[in-house]
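Per reviewer request, we include the raw input and output of the structure prediction for the construct analysed in the revised manuscript.
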Amino acid sequence: MLLDRDVLIDAGTGVCDLTLAELTPIDRVFLTHSHLDHVAAIPFMVDTVGGMRDAPLTVHALPATIEILKNHIFNWSIWPDFTQIPSPERPFLRYEPIELGATVALGNGRRITALPANHVVPAVGYQLDSGKGSLVFTGDTTTNDPLWAIVNKIANLRQLIIECAFCNREKNLAVMSKHLCPSMLAEELAKLERSCDIFITHLKPGEIELTMEELEEYAGQYRPRMLQNNQVIEF
């Protein structure tokens, strides 16, 4: 998800749809967690635009997520360590650890706050606050009471983007992998006490139609809509 022109929330394969002119201004990536579908584009992005930028790309993530990137991706075996290239003094990449509940000020009144997520690896969601309104992106998560306790206190909440990775027949897999299915998502949305637009993400490509039909059946009162590629959301 591209915030304005300079911030990415996660960096999966969708980043490959961006042009060089769109990639170069991106200064920060805020990662929800370390799974490949959320980090896959970072190595190629740094390699492609690192030499075109005056400052390193900053990756904001939980300390555990940063350690995974260091140990398993930017380790010279899978990909070069761009925190050392072209030199340790002027690298193409730098890490900035975040903690749950911490807020990063981005300028122009924008703030990003790390929210609790419940997944199989250390993970967070994010509140994106423009100063006028807020969007909450849950990232990958399963049932998550601590999240709703915080979301329900966000006075300027405008949009909620939440996952639904599996259809109901795969509920056991959703529970095992700490994702959501429509019946579980309906129970989670019942904990939401604020009015906002709700968008669904992380749908499995072969089950999109079925999952959205089940969402209409189980959670239709919340009017969830599927998040679209290239969709623009203002808040």
